[in-house]
Amino acid sequence: MRDGRGRRRLGRRVALQPRPGYAVACETSVYLARAAQGRGLGSQLEQALLARARAAGYRHLVAKVMAANEASVRFHQRHGYEVVGRQRDVGYLDGAWQDVVILQRVFEDAPPP
Q1: Which distant-in-sequence residues (6+ apart) come within 8 Å of 94 by Cβ?
Q2: Could you give the 3-state DSSP secondary structure of residue 3?
Q3: Chain centroid, CA 20 distance in Å
Q4: Cα–Cα distance between 63 and 76 in angstroms, integer?
Q5: What is the pTM of this model?
Q6: CA 14: distance to chain centroid?
Q7: In what order do the strands lie in the sheet with 82-93?
Q8: Where are the domains of the chain?
Q9: Cα distance between residue 30 and residue 13, in whole Å
Q10: What is the C-alpha to C-alpha distance for residues 112 and 93, in angstroms, rounded to an integer?
């Protein structure tokens, strides 16, 4: 996706697992440069990701966020995700082990595959 100035913004979804039983689950990510944050671009990307995930038949969406990134956790919660878990010491950033918060959003009204 590109913004009004033609700059690229990243929003993606990837299958959660390659096995057939997980065909309705995907992991989502939205990345913006710091300079692009706080202007609604992330929400535009997330809304587009949600719409495309639903249209592609996904029911269960997962987002994994560094626990220290409280703004990202809140961002996902504003878009219907709920915190369902925490993985301890799964990432290493800024010279320290970091926990990851696991969030999920379920389209309850999605039909079976």
Answers
A1: none
A2: coil
A3: 21
A4: 8
A5: 0.82
A6: 10
A7: 10-15, 25-31, 60-66, 96-106, 82-93
A8: 10-106
A9: 9
A10: 39
- CATH entry, 10-106, from 3.10.120.10, 3.20.20.70, 3.40.50.2300, 3.40.630.30: 3.40.630.30
- Helix, strand or coil, per DSSP, at residue 25: strand
Q: How far apart are CA 24 and CA 16, in angstroms?
A: 9
Residue in this structure with the two tokens 């990134």, named with its chain if needed:
69
- What are the CB-based long-range contacts (under 8 Å, 24+) for 74-81? 75/30, 75/42, 75/43, 75/46, 76/103, 76/105, 77/103, 78/43, 79/43, 79/46, 79/47, 79/50, 79/105, 80/50, 80/105, 81/105
What distance in Å separates the CA atoms of residue 56 and residue 61, rounded to the nearest whole number? 12
Segment 38-84, tens digit of pLDDT: 888 889 989 999 999 999 999 999 999 999 999 999 999 999 999 99
Does the pLDDT value for residue 3 go beyond 50?
A: no
- Amino acid identity at 60: H
